[in-house]
Amino acid sequence: MSYAEEIDAQGIEGYLARYGRREMLRLLTCGSVDDGKSTLIGRLLYDTQMVHDDVLAATRKASDRFGTTGGELDLALLVDGLQAEREQGITIDVAYRYFATERRKFVIADTPGHVQYTRNMATGASHCDLAVILIDARHGVLEQTRRHSFLCALLGIQHFVVAVNKMDLVGWSEARFQEIRDAYIEFAARLQVRDIHFIPMSALKGENVVRRGDSMPWFQGSPLLDHLETVHVASDRNLVDLRFPVQLVLRPDLDFRGYAGTLASGVVRVGDPIAVVPSGKQSTVKSIVTFDGNVEEAFAGMAVVLTLRDEIDVSRGDMLVGPNNAPPLANAVEAMVVWFAGAPLRPGARYLLKHTTTQTATTVTDLRYRINVGTLRRESAPELQMNEIGRVRLECSRPLAADAYTKNRATGAFILIDRLDNATVGAGMIVERKTTEESVRGRRASADARSNVRLHSRRLVTPEARKARLGQEPFVLWITGLPRAGKSSLAYGVEKWLFDHQHHVHVLDGEILRLGVNSDLGFRGVDRWENQRRAAELARLNLGFGISTIVALVSPLAFERAEARRIVGGERFFEVFCDAPLAACEARDEDGLYARARAGEIAEVTGVDAPYEPPAAPDLRLDTVADAAAANVGKVIEFLRQRGLLR
Questions:
Q1: 479-532, pLDDT tens digit by residue?
Q2: DSSP 230
Q3: Residue 536, SS3 per DSSP
Q4: May I ask the CATH architecture of the domain 243-321?
């Protein structure tokens, strides 16, 4: 029954209600040039009566002009709509077609077969559940067949249908089909794909596409459409790990604050506890709002608005997750990248990285290897050319909350954007989260101090006894601001006043740390984070000794300062913001730091080519331009006195 007959029988409302309950399958056709991808999709649409009469009439007219079927209806023209595609008889851009049967709805991406359009093919495959890989029975498994198969596997597609097409041109030979099947199986053994199905067919003749034919009685399997209607893909979705990237904060009135986005994975229900990444704040889900009204639960793929019971700071780029199931946070990621741009990717190049709803600056620090798609072997390479695939290491200006792509396709994928023309130059899939730097931070499972070391109660001298001996209440002042904002001057001024008044205190600034305990660290994003983490750990130890600590570091990211507060402990941690505009800081720059950065001699200088996130609610804000250093020291002392921390 055609969809028009269904509407006549059920009425439009009944048809739409029934249509909405059908499961959707997203698939693509891929393979080498002239393997019959567009003809196959045209055959599916034509034989399932999903072609409108006006479209069919236009296609018949186009077949007379561009067709390659000897005056008959050229089914490929139902998909190839570009003038250049029809003139050349090839697919250039990805074409999407939609149809439905009694069992399922389908979205088909017809992708180009030429090597120079590999990036178009990767774009079409990125959201598909199943790949139909066409092979011309005359030519067998070609390099482009292997290339597209590898790309589909890399992009996480777990269901392959290998359609050996044009069987009519090899005399419907079972031996030829078996030969191609064996060759593909040998190649696919190196791919991580769990479901591969083989179907011999002729898209032009309609054999084994929608209906079985009589030309290949030796094949006892189902035709393609039957397989597409019955293949099980529901279990491919990640319904365990809650990942909700916040796209927009909705505030239509004083009584409503909601967080809009599309659920990347997992299931969320009203009353569920959630945590905000990267801040770590927790709350519970108050309501789930959709276009059709409130619902009790939502699952992956649904666009919803979540409201929370607590008023906490959540903004675009944050992610709502399960409290005990958060993705790892890191500035450095390892990823497989498909390169799109004409200019090659080289180590040292800088781009913008778009991950879920977050965008950050990133630097390619290493090109590990390039993949030879013909052999699937790794090759050393100084650069990646257009349409090549390789593994790279990236360092980001701010940490990413990302899963491995094999675990979560939504939060494990990203794109690289050219900083000048805003063009997408690459697509990446995160393949490993355990980098060397993360092991320094104690995240390596095999040597994780948190799991292998236990704190024993052997102390005979308690922190309380130390405080009583020293006669003071220790604290940590964490002074943040742009370079040359006056942090160190303030820190040493406060230290001098406290020392003169019999307080035990010392300063940790960049020079002290970099020339001592952190002399092994550089100035990359992950090294800067480690520099601050060690400073926070030293301050925490000093608290236990009863000694106050003044930390003077740029610490540009709010997440990093929040982590420092967590390490030290919120009750004794006070964030002081030296507020000075960039122009004033540059005017004070006697060492030429900003001038060298603007001349391109040094990179990643905060305020020039690295971001600084001013504290939204510091414990103390100081204007270091309008007020003299001595006045600001006095404000800090008064702040400490009001909190009962001074004798």
A1: 999 999 999 999 999 999 999 998 999 899 888 888 888 888 776 666 777 888
A2: H
A3: helix
A4: Beta Barrel (2.40)
